[in-house]
Amino acid sequence: MKTRRTGVTIVLPVHNGAETLPEALHSISQQTYRDWRLVVVDDGSTDGSAEVVARHFRGDRRVRLVRTEHRGVAAAANLALREADTEWVARMDADDLCMPERLEVQLDFALRHPEVDVVAGQVESFAAGGIGEGFAHYDAWQNALLTHEAIAREAFVELPVAHPTLLMRRRRILAVGGYRAGDFPEDYEFFLRALARGLRFGKVQSVVLRWRDHPHRATRTDPRYREEAFLRVKATYLAPRLRGRPLFVWGGRKARRLGRLLAAEGAPPSGWVDVDPRKRGQRSDGLPFLEPGALPPAGTAYVVACVGTRGAREEIRAALHGRGYRETADFWMAG
Question: What is the DSSP string of 97-135?
Fold first, then answer.
């Protein structure tokens, strides 16, 4: 298939999204940027999702509806990518709402920053009963990460880009293998793999998507989004950065679970860092606990910090910077 140089293809995989699809599709039809195409892959829906799409865009030649048996979101998204014929593709989910200027502002950013392969955007979460403090905190955190350097710095904390906001160079996404299916969050694995393969990220400083929270959201119901799955995929992509020096993992029980997963990936810790004075002289998994001041000099060891207490990451960063450790060279935040 010949790739068009102009326009944007929106790729939207859906499985049983009929309840929210009408609003999502309406938000697409209201885009101020008009040179768009839409590829919807109906992933074996049984609730009439395909019929919703067909009714909404009846007679609109910009829209292609592909029906398949149920194979999962990764396979559906990859099929949509292959069906696209434009240089730029925009990811979309069936339960979210694009802001009217979404494509216009993201494509403008992409054209002004030719070094960028993936353009994300800021989000505004919403829910029928209002969003909780956790989602509000996550939105504020990832909305503040605008540059490639900031996004890469936070890569192992959480997913620092809202996946359904992504505008991507299609050839670059296909070159890194598209999406993978497995016992892991496919959006986070895709992000970490793209980053490891050298793709550059950016983010527009405006809200481009209203992100719907609801009880059936995959992040709430799909076992691939459980904490252990996130830790495992972090370990897979973090371990190659941690070889050649002693490794120390900073944090509590979650950090030690991550340390075991890093060991399984070929980056075994040499010790645990904990501020709790009761841990002094103790061992876990045969490894000693260290106080932060006992870490080796900068440049001779790696540190991975995995902490959940709000404000703890900033304190650890300050302590390590004070010792001369450089973030993403000598230490990484991973939680």
Answer: EE-TTHHHHHHHHHHH-TT-SEEEEEEEEE-TT---HHH
Give the contacts of 294 (CB within 8 A, at least 6 positions apart): none
β-sheet bridge partners, residue 303: 248, 331
Q: Which amino acid is at 81?
A: L
Options 3.30.70.100, 3.50.50.60, 3.40.50.20, 1.10.630.10; which CATH number does 243-333 get? 3.40.50.20
Architecture of the domain whose range is 4-225:
Alpha-Beta Complex (3.90)
How confident is the prediction along the chain (335 residues), in pLDDT tens digits per residue? Answer: 455 557 999 999 999 999 999 999 999 999 999 999 999 999 999 999 999 999 999 999 999 999 999 999 999 999 999 999 999 999 999 999 999 999 999 999 999 999 999 999 999 999 988 888 888 999 999 999 999 999 999 999 999 999 999 999 999 999 999 999 999 999 999 999 999 999 999 999 999 999 998 777 777 777 888 999 999 999 999 999 999 999 999 999 999 999 999 999 999 999 999 999 999 889 999 999 999 999 999 999 999 999 988 889 999 999 999 999 999 999 999 99
Domain map (residue ranges) of the chain: 4-225, 243-333
DSSP H helices, the chain, are 21-29, 49-56, 73-83, 102-112, 133-143, 148-153, 170-175, 186-196, 218-221, 227-238, 253-264, 312-322
